[in-house]
Amino acid sequence: MEIRHVDAVLTRPGRNYVLVRVETADGLVGWGDATLNGREKAVEAALDHHVAPELEGRDATRVEDVWQYLFRGTYWRGGPVLNSALSGVDMALWDLKGKAAGAPVYDLLGGRTREYATAYTHCGDDDVDAIVANCEAAAERGFDHVRVNVGDPAGEYLNLDRVIDGVGEVRERLGPAPELIVDIHGRATPREARRVATGLESADLYFLEDPLRPENRDAFERLRAATTAPLAMGELFTNPWEMRPLIEDELVDFLRVDLSHVGGITAARKLAAVAEHHYVETAFHGPPDLSPVGQAASVHVDLAVPNFGVQEFTDHAAVYGAPIDDVFSGGATLEESVGGLDVPDEPGLGIDVDREAALSYEYERSHLPTVRREDGSVADW
């Protein structure tokens, strides 16, 4: 199954996405997601100028070999831009492999280990009353896991007291259910991370997400020793080997990698296998800046791996409206009776992209806000 053409499709059906389209000589098309929020043009350039020319003429069924070639076969490896490009190609090749075999991707990964993937949704707000109302509405849709970030104004530095007091009040008002998740987004210093983790222990979190930046392994060891709060990490990792010490030393409870950044389905399934041996569960990243293609890929892995924990879910059509339905068809769907996600029992990823519709929604330059402390100095975003 020879690769005839690879191209990046940059689209904005509500927000910017970088999609990867791989076409074979016999006319099959596979889709992947290479979106890197705020750096979409860099990924597009990497795909069009560096990745695509190297893939045309290669065998699309040799998914592992292509992955190794794109990662190891270049002196400059890894990093968010190149690994996002690699991730999108990898998803597209798995999509093609499933279509050629007439099987959904989860079957190629060993088959289902569950009927659905339990999902969590975002219920955060600046106001505790609003968060409680959001959680109650989420419960009516079947969600028993919710993210409850308290106040997160763009450009404002992390307010530890607001987080600790606000989440504590949310737990007190909601009672023992639902499961609560809090995302620090890597904005805390090691000292701040210890304070917020210990301060939230009484809220009985399902997990505390990204309490630290990924480069500080020793800080994770100190944080682990300081708190009983379950810890989740991974969305900022763009190289699967970066997660190794956190998994092997059992410094985290949940693997939070993003399939569009860490190396696609190939990397995610390997990381999940390593994590299983250390009783670490998966909780793949699934924000609005992950396209429906990336979300579908995540759910296929969720359904196949035995150590699945929970899947972050974005209802793209509800957030962005009709443009999403113009561009994407199929993909992951929420079964509200169980608060879980499933994908169509169709060959490949079970999602299609209307290329012409995608191109009609033109890219618009955007970037993440900058966070500054009270004294004006730049802080981690």
How does this structure look, described?
The protein is of the alpha/beta class and 381 residues long. It folds into 2 domains: 3-104, Enolase-like, N-terminal domain (Enolase-like, domain 1, 2-Layer Sandwich); 107-346, Enolase-like C-terminal domain (TIM Barrel, Alpha-Beta Barrel), CATH 3.20.20.120. The chain is built from 15 helices and 15 strands. It has helices at 40-55, 63-72, 80-101, 105-108, 128-140, 160-174, 190-199, 217-226, 244-248, 259-262, 264-276, 292-304, 316-320, 322-327, 355-360; strands at 3-11, 17-24, 29-33, 117-122, 145-147, 179-183, 207-209, 231-233, 254-255, 281-282, 311-312, 328-330, 333-335, 340-342, 351-353. Helix 6 (160-174) packs parallel to helix 7 (190-199). The chain is globular, with a radius of gyration of 20 Å. The termini are far apart.
What is the domain total for the residues? 2
Q: What is the name of the CATH topology of the largest domain? A: TIM Barrel
Global mean pLDDT? 96
CATH architecture of the largest domain: Alpha-Beta Barrel
Q: From N to C, what is the helix and strand string? A: EEEHHHHEHEHEHEHEHEHHEHEHHEEEEH
Strand content: 15-25%
Main beta sheet: strand number and arrangement?
Answer: 10 strands, mixed
Any idea what the shape is?
globular
Extended strand count = 15
GO molecular function, one term: magnesium ion binding
Domain Mandelate racemase/muconate lactonizing enzyme C-terminal: 128-230
Protein name: Bifunctional D-altronate/D-mannonate dehydratase
InterPro entries: DgoD-like, Enolase-like_C_sf, Enolase-like_N, Enolase_C-like, Mandel_Rmase/mucon_lact_enz_CS, Mandelate_racemase_C, Mandelate_racemase_N_dom
